[in-house]
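To: structure desk
From: M.T.
Subject: fold request, one chain
Message: Could you run this one when you get a chance? Sequence is below, nothing fancy, just the single chain.
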Amino acid sequence: MQELQKKYLNSWAVSSAGGGASEAFLSMFLLYFYNQVLGLDPFLCGLGIALSLFVDAFTDPMIGGISDRTTTRFGRRIPYMAFGLFGFALGVFLLFNIRLGDSQFALFSQLLLFIIITRISSTMFFIPRSSLGVEMIKGYEQRNLLHARDNNFGILGTVIFYSAIAIIFGNNWNQEDGYKAVSLIVICLFLITSLYSVFRLRNIESQFEKTTSLDETKQTGVIKGLILLWKNDSWRNLIIGTSLFGIVGSLSSVFSIYMINFFWLWLPDEFTLILALSVPGAMIAGLSANKLLENKDKKKTVLVLTCIMISIGPSLTIFRIIDIKFGTNILPEVGLGIYSLLFILVAVHSSFMAGIRVINGVVFSSMFSDVVEDHQKNTHSRSEGLIISVNGLSGKVLGGVGILLSGVLLSLVGFGEEGSIEDKREAVTSLAIFSTSLLFIIAPISLFFISKYRINKSIHEDNLKDLGYQTGRVEI
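Reply: Done. Structure tokens follow.
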């Protein structure tokens, strides 16, 4: 298995470059594009995206479960990946390049239709892809390497995406043609990396080691699989804890472009330079994650890193809110561009937090992956697709609630109407106060549930041995 992992790990991870770019593009700009550029009411923007997430949340387990029980000459996953990648590329193209009309009804209809196409196709590609990686690499610490390598290619994709923003947008966030151009770059990157990955991995599943224990995967339907999965204490507590963070995450994602534009007053080229300066922190963390996490308990690591993120992450936003509300000067003046102390401060903060987020994300993904063998030992069903798809179900439902709430809040504070720049800045400050306060309410509850996760290295390696797999103690 060591040679197999060496040969195919990069072929599997490379598609994350296109996936990372497309995910960053959609999460950051979709609502803003339809609201501020096309003129769709923010509530309808939030409603359309939220409805698509609700649909996606319940199609995910179906596709994941079906792929677990599929048998073809190319294995369980590749056929779905091949079909899904073209649908996803088409959906992104339609979202930013097709206009069905200028009325609120037409804009809402096209948003809802095209985003549903995009999300279902995304499920067909990314869930089987993730399942393939988890099945390929099973070792406790090797799983950290799997997700770290995946993350590194994702960072490469976002760098390409941010570079395109800087070049195309210049100093104006509201160029419709700019979004069309960036969408085409993202689509091309996704197609190139995904097609290469699918082609390289088309015969890999036949080479995976097989379990020596009873295998009842094909006899376990989606509903039964969900019931059995809910009984797994580690998975249940981990999914509850991470899903609660999904509400805050969806708010932050939707509000990010509003915050950049009206709260921090960054122009596109200035903001992308900050992102560029944060990339080294993310890359260093990604490249060293496997070494840093060696012999570390995953749950303890996540709890520590999450506490750091909660305490340091929103610090600059809090200081900026205090400056606005109380007329203080804790932070340097905003709006002075790259030749300012604030720019240096934000760049350093962004680089540090990017590194923390990368390592935390790697460990979280690895913890979810380790549930696969724990679940298999208890149920005799190897259900990577079902488990990975359900991992995102509650997060998407709560994330959809967060996005719907975002649309309501944006509508309430005046982004559905013509208003002055000062009015919009004041409105975004209110949004910043709300989202930051919500983080500190949800965080302790989430951390409590995450602390109930029980799978450690010893338990995982016992699971592998009981199932007849290698322990994964190989060097890659």
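Reply (cont.): Confidence is low (pLDDT under 50) at residues 471-476. Let me know if you need anything else for the meeting.
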